[in-house]
Amino acid sequence: MSTEGIEAVFLETHNWGKAAGFFQALGFTLEFETDHNSGQLRNGDGPSVFIAEVPEDHDPRVRIVLAVPDADTFRPGSSVEVVTPFEATHHGTREMTVRDPDGRLWSLQAPAKK
Questions:
Q1: Does residue 21 belong to any structural domain of this protein?
Q2: 58 vs 100: CA distance, rounded Å
Q3: Is 1 part of a structural domain of the chain?
Q4: pTM (predicted TM-score)
Q5: The organism sits in which domain of life (predicted)?
Q6: How many Å apart are CA 72 and CA 52, to the nearest integer?
Q7: Residue 37: left if φ>0, alpha if ψ -120 to 50, beta else—which one?
Q8: What is the count of structural domains for the chain?
Q9: How far apart are CA 31 and CA 60, in angstroms?
Q10: Which of 7, 17, 51, 100 could cysteine-pair with 67, CB 3.0–4.6 Å?
């Protein structure tokens, strides 16, 4: 089984309001906002952009999240280094982290167990 493409881009920021405003100025629509300075935006049918505010002493990172239809049946190929196996997240999905040959980390996201 393979991934289903890009699910989302996860951005960390030092200022949620400015970051959300930037993407809205580029045509993205706010789908939802949380009560802890984060939220999700989308432009058309493409992947969402999820933005989360982090403290000033934390370097903001970017992660690309790939969709996986079923964590229980997903088996990465032998050339994929699994950093962390699928684990439940606080937002109702399961997430795995893998490393590519150049050392970049990628997130794989699957629906929560039913």
A1: yes
A2: 24
A3: no
A4: 0.80
A5: Bacteria
A6: 28
A7: left
A8: 1
A9: 22
A10: 7
